[in-house]
Amino acid sequence: MEKGKKVLTGITTSGTPHLGNLVGAIQPAIESSRSKATSSFLFLADYHSLIKSQDPNLTHGSSFEIAAAWLACGLKPDVVTFYRQSDVPEIMELAWILSCITAKGLMNRAHAYKAAAAMNHEQGISDLDKGVFMGLFNYPILMAADILAFNADIVPVGNDQKQHIEMTRDIAARFNHLYGEVFTLPEALISERTGVLPGIDGQKMSKSYNNTIPIFLEEKSLLKMVRKIKTNSLEPGVPKDPTACNIFKIYKAFASKSEVDDLELLYANGIAWGEAKNVLFEQLNTQLKPLREKHKEIIEDRKKLEETLINGAVKARKTASVILQNVRQAIGIKSFIN
Ligand code: TRP
User: Fold this and answer.
1) What pLDDT is attached to residue 1?
2) Which atom of ligand 1 lies at the shortest distance from residue 48's CA?
3) Is 24 in the pocket of ligand 1 (CB under 6 A)?
4) Domains detected in the chain
5) What is the pLDDT of residues 286-316, one digit of tens each?
6) Does ligand 1 lie within 6 Å of residue 188's CB atom?
7) Per-residue pLDDT, 195
């Protein structure tokens, strides 16, 4: 049964999940999903992924990979409603309905579309819509449907998604104005994560920089990756500044306060880079080992994973079908006899 406010977030199904995702998105979402005061909806935004990928194997593989990753990292499908967007047809149905009351002008202002048009402009292409597909253009409407199909109260997202939540509120308000109060206006919860995790080259860890440490690497590969982390060329015995060090920054995201203090002392005493990397590796490996084992178990039992998601979709549709019933009634798409 649902309790308290509904917190809903979509997970993009692309790329191999890395430590930056773990610390920045997966762990905080799992932690907040444990709150007894709210009910949590988490879904794989697989229809969104078609905007970027038209490769069926990639589309399918990414969805599988991300589902397995979240469960391996500790998501509990019995306390969260965890589902694939594509298993909830009410969302697609609502997307059409919303698109009929959403001004094209509102979509013209969406960041992703504007960026694509601006790119054409910069390249001197006169058709600013060149290469822009309707999926990209309509993206904010699908996102509004994801949220409104559940009447979510709170939507935790990164800052880059703030505009989409504002658009969702605009769309919901317009619907309510036209047809009566059906939708809740959702609030964005913008994570104020400071201190981004660096990748092995020191830039923000991101698949677009090709500098990530994947979560489920085998031990040997993990060690290899840690060995690649960029440092300066200070010799062993020379005191080192932890605040400017990539090894230290990653360590800090995984170690306890007293462990961090200990390493800081070793830096002051001139720890060798190879040694610092060993300390980081040991810490990471200890924490990632159970996740790696869980992950292996999950990917070896595809049937169980499928069942988990189907059960999630059944739970999700219990909520969404009631809301869609209200939507259909409100707009006049309903039975002739009542
Ligand atoms: N667009 C979001 C992102 O790129 C993912 C997403 C899809 C989402 N649908 C959503 C997030 C609904 C919150 C609510 O991160």
Assistant:
1) 59
2) 7
3) no
4) 5-197+302-331 (3.40.50.620), 216-297 (1.10.240.10)
5) 999 999 999 999 999 999 999 999 999 999 9
6) no
7) 62
Bridge-partner residues for 43, per DSSP?
10, 83
For residue range 131-151, list pLDDT tens digits in order: 999 999 999 999 999 999 999
pLDDT given for residue 47 in this prediction = 97
pLDDT at 15: 84
Measured in Å, residue 12 CA sits from the centre of ligand 1 at: 7
Which residue lies with its CA nearest to atom 11 of ligand 1?
10
| pLDDT value of residue 165 | 98
pLDDT beneath 50, residues of the chain: none
Name which residue sits closest to atom 10 of ligand 1, judged by CA: 10
Verify whether ligand 1 is closer than 6 Å to residue 263 (CB atom): no
95 lines ligand 1 (CB under 6 A): no
Ligand 1 atom nearest residue 9's Cα: 13
Kindly give the distance from the C-alpha atom of residue 291 to the centroid of ligand 1, in angstroms, as a whole number.
25
